[in-house]
UniProtKB/TrEMBL annotation:
InterPro entries: ArAA_hydroxylase (IPR001273), ArAA_hydroxylase_Fe/CU_BS (IPR018301), ArAA_hydroxylase_sf (IPR036951), Aro-AA_hydroxylase_C_sf (IPR036329), Aromatic-AA_hydroxylase_C (IPR019774), Phe-4-hydroxylase_mono (IPR005960). This is Phenylalanine-4-hydroxylase. GO terms for molecular function: iron ion binding; phenylalanine 4-monooxygenase activity. It comes from Noviluteimonas gilva. The keyword Oxidoreductase applies. It catalyses: (6R)-L-erythro-5,6,7,8-tetrahydrobiopterin + L-phenylalanine + O2 = (4aS,6R)-4a-hydroxy-L-erythro-5,6,7,8-tetrahydrobiopterin + L-tyrosine.
Amino acid sequence: TTATPASPNRIEHQLTDKGYVPVYTTAVVEQPWSSYTPSDHEVWATLFARQQQVLVGRASDEFLRNQRAMGMTPDRIPKFDDLNAVLRKTTGWELIGVEGLLPELTFFEHLANRRFPVTWWIRKPEQLDYLSEPDLFHDLFGHVPLLMNPVFADYMEAYGRGGVKAHGIGPEALVNLTRLYWYTVEFGLIKQDDGLRIYGSGIVSSKGESIHCLESAAPNRIGFDLERIMRTRYRIDTYQKTYFVIDSYEQLMEATRPDFTPIYERLSKEDSYAAGDVQDSDVVFNKGTGEGWLNDGDV
Ligand code: HBI
Ligand code: FE
């Protein structure tokens, strides 16, 4: 049965033996801007102001610069049409409204065509600090600014094309590619002259992890290595045990140039790595203490 449980978010949930799971809908929806309530705009304004404050000195220069260049309004939910006017002429990307998580192939096809799916609804006040699926704040505040950067914009399109190909190869290839997305687009760090900085959307949209990823002694911080990342399991329900550090967005783009098929081949014969393990071949910025880590739950 599809039932929408207590969760105030609009995404349909299916009742399964694992409880309520989000039902993937591929529908593209117009942003219902006039139906946002004052409370919705208040949630945006609160999260925006809080993250702006936390990200000074923590987010990458490129992220902060592009966030300003986007002209996002801090006091109310931005209009996709307004952001698209800027985005289209800068890198040819455009935002489309969706109900929430899309089936992977649908998601990849959008990225391959420079369309970024943005959830149209925003979390409720009682969900300020955590919610299980991406909402408008995560997508808009977290993902959109770097789409203004031409090199990162190319990377995201290349990722989408890679995803469509991986989908054709099979589920293991998809898992490898999803790990790459997870440890770069969602939870990536970048090295700047003045230290490590955040560019991953999952981090920049979370107050706690914005601080934890740079300042806690618990996690590993390791130099970017595409194949190593594709082999590494990750966490969905806690802070990451390991953050990977790129030297530049160009490094990301370069890493997607080769055909991944031989890499998938190689990886299909190897075991994956636990999220918290450090490998001998790693460039280690720091080896975490592992404090507070849970032993189960790596995916
Ligand atoms: N759907 N709307 C949306 N947004 C995402 O970030 C997203 C998705 N579906 C799948 C997905 N991300 C990840 O599995 C990617 O690694 C493909
Ligand atoms: Fe995301």
